[in-house]
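User: Need the bound-state model for guanosine-5'-triphosphate:
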Amino acid sequence: MKQVPVTVLSGFLGSGKTTFLNYLLHADHGRRIGVLVNDFGSVNIDADLVTRIEGETMSLANGCICCSIRGDMEETLVSMVDGDEKPDHLLIEASGVSDPAAIVQTFALSHDLRAKVYLDGIVAVVDGEQVRDLKGKNALLARRQIAVADLLLVNKVDLLDDAQRASLSKWLRQQVSDVRLVETVRGRVPLELVFGLGGKKWREAAEKDTLDVHVHDVEQSAKHAHENHLLEFETWTYRGEKPFDFTALKRMMSGLPASVYRVKGIVQLQNMPAERTVLQVAGRRVSFLGDRLWRDTRPYTELVFIAAAGKLDPDRLAARMDQCLADAKETAAEDRQADAIGKEVQINRWAQKFWEHSARAMQQRMAEDHSNGEQ
Ligand SMILES: Nc1nc2c(ncn2[C@@H]2O[C@H](COP(=O)(O)OP(=O)(O)OP(=O)(O)O)[C@@H](O)[C@H]2O)c(=O)[nH]1
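Assistant: Bound-state model below.
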């Protein structure tokens, strides 16, 4: 039986993996692609944000495929290959906290997997704006993700000037000398660079045992990695059914402590009642994007927070979220007055950008629908 090639997308929280995945799925490559998306939090946000016309998207949430749900990854991949519509290629979007070296081990060690799939390559996505701001264990994890990659997408270069790009490139070259670096905006890279990488680098590393984790000791290291993740990261999910005030929520998200690394999910905004909105906080950058019309779906809010372990205080966060609800009556009169002046400017500026984005997203979707209809 012909084995199916697998590409693993790795990269730190919020670097642009899902964005890249969507670009890839909509690009003209003529392959039937099976997708497996892994979310560290308990909600399948990423799978929800993967837009595709056809092909299978499987989702594994509430754990990390490099450790706690390694077995689930094996089973899911095998079932995808054995299914009625065998894919030509599999893409795995690893969670932003996963260590690709441990994923490589799973591929190297599982007989079931080895019979059906082979690792074609690891593509790491780097947040060009913020990767160098990562501290401590996050910085180490990001470096491990970079080190194992066969292809490195230096993403978000639209947020950098020429000097920053040059200095980032130099810094990355100091981290890894033997990998192809490609600067990208929203993960747009020539497809021939992505498929058929051959996985040479990881295979060599596995043979030389330089993956930094011992291949024969996978149970132990997986357990260790799992413990590390639980020790290092914590997640919490906010759910609600009342609409939020855009300005208040944006201000709150912009003021989150640095220990909150990532927030993502769906928000119901009073200012945009008809449209489902995606909220993204990656490091210090906050963005709202009109996503799709609610239509028959009852509007809701579901946001996953990922932070340094021990730094999330759910009660406090929930209280702060509630203060941003459109019908919140808590704001002191004084605050409200002070806000009113700032709000006037902010709402106009932000609402403008916000609508601009929504309109663009809508146009793009319509164009995609149109071109798909023509095929
Ligand atoms: N300016 C800019 N923003 C980008 C680019 N690529 C992605 N983003 C934004 O960065 C945020 C995070 O992108 P995602 O694709 O969700 O990141 P991710 O790596 O899948 O995130 P996790 O799965 O949570 O680790 C979103 O708001 C994207 O729209 C880019 O090239 N430039």
